[in-house]
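Can anyone check this?
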Amino acid sequence: MAIVMVGMGCVSAGLFGDGDALKGSGEYKVGDDIPAGEYYVKCDGYNLYVEVASDSSGDLDSIIYNLNTEGGAYITVNDGEYLKIQGGNLYELDKAPDRGAEDGYYKDGMYKVGEDIPAGEYQVESTGDLAYIEVSGDSRHQIDGIITNDNFESNKYITIEDGQYLTLSNGAQIKA
């Protein structure tokens, strides 16, 4: 099993309340505590940790994927898996906080192309030393779901298509 760590920053951490959250910090068995499916997780403070495991042993070998973020991310969980959330909230997609551009830019975070950001070609700017961009075909956060990714220091162009997922981190941003 692959372990993929994804780090993202978010300038809006803490701006949204948890009133529509399905679940907060805790560990949940998919199929018993929550239904299988796709969700959005949002940081409710400084850092969000999400882990999806095949069992409740706590062994590293049982981790299917995990991520750390100061923002939010889409995740998909399957029946029988265990979802751990620390420092954030789990939302059903139709009740999730706004995931669009802020202050004229798409900033650190994960976006669903065609819903949160339109498909097309974009120039991605780096506001830091080494920005990161990733385009994925799903929200399972595994290496085989990555279509393309890159670490870069200045600017680069990227083309994204409906249904893909765009992750911007470490100071990567796109003008809306």
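Reply from J.R.: I decoded it. The radius of gyration is 15 Å.
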